[in-house]
Protein backbone atom coordinates (compact mmCIF):
# COMPACT_ATOMS: atom_id res chain seq x y z
CA UNK A 1 0.00 0.00 0.00
CA UNK A 2 2.97 2.33 -0.46
CA UNK A 3 1.09 4.07 -3.30
CA UNK A 4 -1.58 5.30 -0.87
CA UNK A 5 0.00 8.39 0.68
CA UNK A 6 -1.26 11.64 2.13
CA UNK A 7 -0.92 13.11 -1.38
CA UNK A 8 -3.43 10.58 -2.72
CA UNK A 9 -5.85 11.31 0.13
CA UNK A 10 -5.76 14.99 -0.81
CA UNK A 11 -6.41 14.06 -4.43
CA UNK A 12 -9.37 11.87 -3.44
CA UNK A 13 -10.76 14.75 -1.36
CA UNK A 14 -10.51 17.09 -4.37
CA UNK A 15 -12.16 14.52 -6.64
CA UNK A 16 -14.96 13.99 -4.10
CA UNK A 17 -15.66 17.70 -3.59
CA UNK A 18 -15.79 18.44 -7.32
CA UNK A 19 -18.01 15.39 -7.93
CA UNK A 20 -20.43 16.39 -5.17
CA UNK A 21 -20.73 19.98 -6.44
CA UNK A 22 -21.10 18.76 -10.02
CA UNK A 23 -23.83 16.26 -9.21
CA UNK A 24 -25.77 18.59 -6.88
CA UNK A 25 -25.86 21.30 -9.56
CA UNK A 26 -26.97 18.78 -12.20
CA UNK A 27 -29.75 17.39 -9.99
CA UNK A 28 -30.98 20.93 -9.37
CA UNK A 29 -30.83 21.94 -13.05
CA UNK A 30 -32.52 18.74 -14.21
CA UNK A 31 -35.52 19.60 -12.05
CA UNK A 32 -36.34 22.18 -14.75
CA UNK A 33 -37.77 21.53 -18.19
CA UNK A 34 -35.21 20.51 -20.83
CA UNK A 35 -34.08 23.47 -23.03
CA UNK A 36 -35.53 25.96 -20.54
CA UNK A 37 -33.53 29.10 -19.85
CA UNK A 38 -33.58 29.35 -16.06
CA UNK A 39 -31.63 32.59 -15.64
CA UNK A 40 -30.20 35.15 -18.01
CA UNK A 41 -28.29 38.35 -17.35
CA UNK A 42 -26.14 40.16 -19.87
CA UNK A 43 -23.63 37.63 -21.26
CA UNK A 44 -24.37 34.96 -18.62
CA UNK A 45 -27.17 32.39 -18.63
CA UNK A 46 -28.29 29.16 -17.01
CA UNK A 47 -30.07 26.85 -19.45
CA UNK A 48 -30.74 23.10 -19.16
CA UNK A 49 -29.58 21.08 -22.19
CA UNK A 50 -28.27 17.56 -22.84
CA UNK A 51 -24.99 17.14 -24.70
CA UNK A 52 -24.59 13.79 -26.50
CA UNK A 53 -21.12 14.67 -27.79
CA UNK A 54 -17.83 15.54 -26.17
CA UNK A 55 -16.64 18.89 -24.84
CA UNK A 56 -18.73 21.84 -25.95
CA UNK A 57 -21.06 19.61 -28.03
CA UNK A 58 -18.34 18.58 -30.47
CA UNK A 59 -19.13 15.36 -32.39
CA UNK A 60 -22.71 14.90 -31.17
CA UNK A 61 -24.33 11.48 -30.93
CA UNK A 62 -21.44 9.41 -29.53
CA UNK A 63 -22.81 8.99 -26.01
CA UNK A 64 -22.76 5.16 -26.18
CA UNK A 65 -19.15 5.08 -27.40
CA UNK A 66 -18.06 7.41 -24.62
CA UNK A 67 -19.58 5.08 -22.00
CA UNK A 68 -16.82 2.62 -22.94
CA UNK A 69 -13.96 5.08 -23.54
CA UNK A 70 -14.26 7.22 -20.39
CA UNK A 71 -13.50 4.42 -17.85
CA UNK A 72 -10.21 3.72 -19.64
CA UNK A 73 -9.33 7.41 -19.64
CA UNK A 74 -10.08 7.63 -15.90
CA UNK A 75 -7.92 4.56 -15.26
CA UNK A 76 -5.01 6.14 -17.16
CA UNK A 77 -5.47 9.40 -15.22
CA UNK A 78 -5.42 7.48 -11.90
CA UNK A 79 -2.15 5.79 -12.90
CA UNK A 80 -0.69 9.19 -13.79
CA UNK A 81 -1.96 10.64 -10.51
CA UNK A 82 -0.24 7.89 -8.52
CA UNK A 83 3.01 8.26 -10.49
CA UNK A 84 3.14 12.06 -10.19
CA UNK A 85 1.50 12.53 -6.79
CA UNK A 86 4.43 14.50 -5.38
CA UNK A 87 4.14 17.16 -8.09
CA UNK A 88 1.50 19.57 -6.74
CA UNK A 89 0.42 20.95 -10.12
CA UNK A 90 0.09 17.52 -11.69
CA UNK A 91 -1.71 16.14 -8.63
CA UNK A 92 -4.35 18.86 -8.94
CA UNK A 93 -4.43 18.59 -12.74
CA UNK A 94 -5.10 14.86 -12.74
CA UNK A 95 -7.52 15.08 -9.79
CA UNK A 96 -9.63 17.73 -11.54
CA UNK A 97 -9.64 15.77 -14.80
CA UNK A 98 -10.64 12.57 -13.03
CA UNK A 99 -13.47 14.35 -11.18
CA UNK A 100 -14.75 15.93 -14.39
CA UNK A 101 -14.59 12.69 -16.36
CA UNK A 102 -16.42 10.75 -13.64
CA UNK A 103 -19.03 13.50 -13.24
CA UNK A 104 -19.89 13.46 -16.93
CA UNK A 105 -19.70 9.66 -17.03
CA UNK A 106 -22.37 9.45 -14.32
CA UNK A 107 -24.66 11.55 -16.55
CA UNK A 108 -24.02 9.32 -19.56
CA UNK A 109 -25.01 6.24 -17.56
CA UNK A 110 -28.35 7.69 -16.45
CA UNK A 111 -29.32 10.09 -19.24
CA UNK A 112 -29.02 10.22 -23.03
CA UNK A 113 -26.23 12.78 -22.63
CA UNK A 114 -24.41 15.09 -20.24
CA UNK A 115 -26.31 17.85 -18.44
CA UNK A 116 -24.89 21.22 -19.51
CA UNK A 117 -26.25 24.48 -18.12
CA UNK A 118 -23.68 27.28 -17.77
CA UNK A 119 -23.58 29.77 -20.61
CA UNK A 120 -21.03 32.56 -20.94
CA UNK A 121 -21.24 34.79 -24.01
CA UNK A 122 -21.02 32.94 -27.30
CA UNK A 123 -19.33 29.91 -25.73
CA UNK A 124 -21.30 26.60 -25.84
CA UNK A 125 -23.03 25.57 -22.62
CA UNK A 126 -20.94 23.59 -20.13
CA UNK A 127 -21.07 22.28 -16.55
CA UNK A 128 -18.92 22.00 -13.41
CA UNK A 129 -17.31 18.75 -14.62
CA UNK A 130 -16.33 20.39 -17.93
CA UNK A 131 -14.82 23.31 -16.00
CA UNK A 132 -12.89 20.88 -13.83
CA UNK A 133 -11.44 19.14 -16.90
CA UNK A 134 -10.45 22.45 -18.52
CA UNK A 135 -8.80 23.75 -15.34
CA UNK A 136 -6.95 20.43 -15.05
CA UNK A 137 -5.71 20.81 -18.64
CA UNK A 138 -4.62 24.38 -17.91
CA UNK A 139 -2.59 23.11 -14.93
CA UNK A 140 -0.97 20.48 -17.17
CA UNK A 141 0.03 23.19 -19.63
CA UNK A 142 1.33 25.38 -16.79
CA UNK A 143 3.43 22.49 -15.45
CA UNK A 144 4.88 21.92 -18.94
CA UNK A 145 5.71 25.62 -19.35
CA UNK A 146 7.43 25.69 -15.95
CA UNK A 147 9.50 22.63 -16.91
CA UNK A 148 10.47 24.23 -20.24
CA UNK A 149 11.48 27.45 -18.47
CA UNK A 150 13.51 25.54 -15.86
CA UNK A 151 15.24 23.49 -18.57
CA UNK A 152 16.21 26.70 -20.39
CA UNK A 153 17.66 28.34 -17.25
The N- to C-terminal Cα distance equals 38 Å
Helix content: 55-70%
What composes the largest sheet? 3 strands, antiparallel
What's the shape?
A: globular
User: DSSP helix count?
Assistant: 4
Q: Taking strands numbered 1, 2, ... along the chain, how are they ordered across the largest sheet?
A: 1-2-3
Mean pLDDT: 90
Helix/sheet category: alpha+beta
- The SSE string, one letter per element, is HEEHHEH
* Strand coverage percent: 5-15%
Low-confidence stretches: none
Roughly how many Å is the radius of gyration?
17 Å
Q: What features would you highlight for this structure?
A:
single chain, 153 residues, alpha+beta, 3-stranded antiparallel beta sheet, globular
Report on this structure.
The chain is of the alpha+beta class. 61% of the residues lie in helices and 13% in strands. The chain is built from 4 helices and 3 strands. A 3-stranded antiparallel sheet has the order 1-2-3. Helix 1 packs parallel to helix 3 and helix 3 packs antiparallel against helix 4. The chain is globular, with a radius of gyration of 17 Å. The chain starts with 5 loop residues before the first helix and ends with a helix. The mean pLDDT is 90.
Give the topology, please.
Elements: H1 6-29, E1 37-41, E2 44-51, H2 63-83, H3 88-110, E3 114-120, H4 128-152
Antiparallel strand pairs: 1-2, 2-3
Helix pairs in contact: 1-3, 2-3, 3-4
